[in-house]
Specification:
mainly alpha, 346 residues
């Protein structure tokens, strides 16, 4: 740095300090109040922060940050007022790029709060017009696309998001491929839907949900053998959701005349996941219908002994015990169920 420049910097710094500390000014007062408002926000004292910020903007209409934060605080309880405040800020001239981005971001969130997703999307896209690599805007637009079920746009935004520096999330694009298929399926375009489901499987072989939908298509076409195969594959890949296809598989096996396979099916499920209550309840019903009531009760008792006993398990035991227990014994067991219901409510 050249020597003649150093004295100039010193004089400028001293002058700035004098103006701030010694010259009475409204700006100094509002800046102190703004700091107090920020402290109130940090302490979650929302009412105080709103009061302080409201006082600032009455005295200093140029305090952009005060307006911005006031709108953000009002968003939850008075979103329409928040929108008006942030809209007013968008017409301000000569604002720094970072500030304009924050205003547009806030306005996007305001519109999202009132459910106007079209306007929320428009404002967030304006952020990307200013900063194409803005991580928040891309994430927000992806969320909006998912809410509005615009799966083509969601896939586009997801791909852009994956390329942004600083993004550490994990996005499975096959989810959007599947949703495109679901949309076609709802419109009775089965052929196009099936193409998307198969593409989702090809892109993500361990993604279970496409198999469920393929099974549904097979079932509608009365290709029950293939339907069961796809549903079982879905269960294998999504064991926590396997109960959602139990009815479908059971009905298909009965329609195929493969009655004996229903029991084998549920035993197989329990062998792979002994804590699957839904499969246990189903198997208990099957055993009960076969007249093997003692085996059904013994099966249900296993879940109760393993502390897996939900209200539904206890009710199943009550149902199975109706023909073997005395009224007094049934009444005692019913009291246990009522006690458990009360405990779970608290």
């Amino acid at each position: 740095m050249e020597l003649f420049y150093i004295p100039f910097l010193i004089i400028t710094a001293i002058g700035s300090l004098w103006l701030f500390y010694f010259k009475p000014s409204r700006k100094k007062e509002t800046d102190i109040t703004y700091i107090d408002a920020l402290n109130a926000m940090l302490l979650a004292d929302k009412r105080k922060a709103i009061a302080l910020l409201s006082n600032i903007v009455k005295k200093d209409s140029e305090h952009i940050n005060a307006y911005l934060q006031l709108g953000n605080l009002l968003r939850e309880d008075d979103p329409d007022r928040a929108i008006k405040i942030h809209q007013m800020l968008t017409v301000r001239q000569n604002l720094p790029e970072e500030t304009r981005i924050e205003i547009l971001k806030s306005l996007s969130l305001d519109y999202d709060r009132v459910g106007d997703l079209v306007k929320a999307k428009i404002e967030a896209e304006k952020v990307l017009n200013i900063d194409k690599s803005n991580l928040w805007a891309s994430s927000f637009l992806l969320m909006i696309a998912e809410k509005t079920e615009d799966w083509d746009y969601a896939e586009k935004k997801a791909k852009q998001l994956q390329k942004l520096k600083g993004f550490n999330g994990n996005i499975d694009l096959s989810v959007y491929t599947l949703q495109k298929g679901v949309k076609y399926l709802k419109n009775n375009n089965t052929e196009e839907a099936e193409n998307f489901f198969r593409k989702a499987i090809n892109d993500s072989p361990n993604y279970g949900l496409p198999y469920k939908y393929l099974g549904d298509i097979n079932n509608n076409n009365r290709d029950l053998v293939k339907a069961v195969e796809n549903w079982e594959k879905y269960m294998e890949l999504s064991p926590s959701e396997s109960h959602t296809v139990f009815d479908s598989i059971e009905t298909a096996l009965f329609d195929l005349g493969r009655y004996s396979e229903v029991e084998k099916f549920y035993r197989k499920v329990l062998n792979e996941n002994p804590s699957d209550i839904n499969a246990g309840l189903r198997l208990a019903n099957v055993l009960n219908e076969k007249g093997e009531n003692k085996s059904a009760i013994a099966l249900i008792d296993q879940f109760i002994d393993q502390k897996e006993g939900s209200i539904s398990v206890m009710l199943m035991k009550l149902k199975l015990s109706l023909s073997t227990q005395t009224p007094a014994e049934l009444s005692f067991y019913l009291d246990e169920i009522l006690t458990k219901v009360k405990d779970e409510q608290y």
